[in-house]
Amino acid sequence: MNLASIIDPHPANATALISRGKVTTYGQLREQVAGLRGGLVGLGLQPGDRVGIVAANNWYFVVSYLAVLGVGCVAVPLNPASPGPEVQRELAAIGARAVIVGPAATAVVGLLDRAALPALETVITSQGDELPGAVLLDDLLAATPAPVVQRDEDDLAVLIFTSGTAGSPKAAMLTHGNLLTNLEQCQAHPGRSQQADDVAFAVLPFSHIFGLNVVLGLSFMAGAAMVLVERFDPQSALETVEKHQVTVISGVPTMWGAWAALPGSGPGAMASVRVGTSGAAKLDPLVQRAIRDRFGLAIMEGYGLTEAAPVVTSGTGVEAPEGSIGVPLPGLRVRLVDDDGEDTLVGDAGEVWVAGKNVFAGYWNDAEATNAALTSDGWLRTGDIAVVDDDGFLFLVDRVKDLIIVSGFNVYPNEVEEVLLAHPGVDQAVVIGVPHPHSGEAVKAYVAVTTGIAVEEDDLIAHCEAHLARYKCPQKVMFVDEIPQSATGKVLRKALR
Question: Taking the domain 178-399, which CATH number applies?
């Protein structure tokens, strides 16, 4: 088996991708991927080697992803909008032997300190000679095609950086079996399956598991077409949906909220859409109703996390009530567990635990975090709190962890606090999530300054932007005399909230 073989069964003349106005059929895609596999083998890459992919949602990403998996290497999708220091930390953390760079990330990768990346031997670029010493992607595509390398279901396929169920960001290990199992579970869920004649709107970043497996993976499993969108703009996105007669849209609440607030749009813009789903964060019922009233489209919520590859529940096809995340997918098990490790009663809140072949293999080189997330008998502790009603529908009510969710992206406070504390003017720092009308939550920092050093709010925000992806950076910094702590020295985040 190999996840990359997912594109093999489909008709050669069927549309696979629409990227930057160009159509790629499944037959063309298979030829391109086979050529790139040959190029990667020619570079000496071996099964198990980690290969970073820093590209937006375009043809470059898709061909690179399938070829990396196809030669048995481990694909590591990274956010092309991240600043250089963040990309460098992530490449160093997983010991990447090669990195493939799309057009949007050339400048970022060009700033990497190669001396700090001893494992990195090869940079592959799509942009001419802008990266000295880099290998051209076009040259690799012209290589003699190489066959797909067979892998076991437990072999590692993808590393996705996530804040995890606890702690600072780490790389979640997803196997070929994890990813394929979740695709099969999604396809088996009532009303959730994609079909060969579907056209999927692919704007969710492929560097995020939601975009990678729910959008890209499901479309390829079904043999559907994907319209690849590199940047979301509500007006142009709506025009794209109508132009290409999109039938499936998976989005995050901020996306649906932007469409709900867009003036002048009517039901015709989404007349072709048969399935609309929302995940990664809580969907405001007002937005859900606005989309239904304006476009005639019922948006169903689901729930998942990177460590589950990612989908756990879905409201699609089961008439889930408003506010519910639906019911578990077929083939996985879900428990709600109290503080004593016992299953809760109907209507009582408990932590969501998940078990199934879709549950990840742990965190890369982090046994402590893996043991904290997985029980000895294979249950994944999600850190999310839910209740179940008499009809079996689940409702999220809280989080155990201090995770902040900004526009569907996870932000763990520790990561932001570490960057703030690296500034010479910061003596203490703590970060919390606060409600935001557009992104759901925003990052807010409380800082105690170092005696004798003058620090401005804009200085600290700019410092964070130089080291972190923009969505992780504080939108507001409050200066305080000291950070509230318990008698044992634990930061009292609830007091700040």
Answer: 3.40.50.12780
User: 351's torsion region: left (phi>0), alpha (psi -120 to 50) or beta?
Assistant: beta
Report the topology of domain 404-496: GMP Synthetase; Chain A, domain 3 (3.30.300)
For strand 394-399 and strand 404-406, is the pairing parallel, antiparallel, or unpaired? unpaired
* pTM metric for this prediction: 0.86
Please tell me the number of Cα atoms within 13 Å of 354 on its side-chain side. 30
Pairing of strands 199-202, 248-251: parallel
Q: Which CATH number fits domain 3-151: 3.40.50.980, 1.20.1420.30, 1.10.10.10, 3.40.630.40?
A: 3.40.50.980
SS3 category, 209 = helix
Q: Which two tokens stand for residue 486?
A: 């318990």
Three-class SS state of 288: helix
Pinpoint the residues of the chain covered by CATH 3.40.50.12780.
178-399
pLDDT per residue as tens, the chain (497 positions): 999 999 999 999 999 999 988 999 999 999 999 999 999 999 999 999 999 999 999 999 999 999 999 999 999 999 998 888 899 999 999 999 999 999 888 877 877 888 899 999 999 998 766 677 889 999 999 999 999 999 999 999 999 998 655 556 799 999 999 999 999 999 999 876 799 999 999 999 999 999 999 999 999 999 999 999 999 999 999 999 999 999 999 999 889 999 998 988 777 899 999 999 998 888 888 899 999 999 999 999 999 999 999 999 999 988 899 999 999 999 999 999 998 889 999 988 899 999 999 999 999 999 999 999 999 999 999 989 899 999 999 998 866 667 788 887 878 787 888 889 889 989 888 898 888 887 888 999 999 888 888 888 998 999 999 988 888 999 999 888 888 765 445 566 766 76
Question: Where along the chain do the CATH 3.30.300.30 domains lie?
Answer: 404-496
How far, in Å, CA of 175 to CA of 172, rounded?
A: 10
- Contact present, 84 and 123 (Cβ < 8 Å): no
How many other CB atoms sit within 10 Å of the CB of residue 4?
24
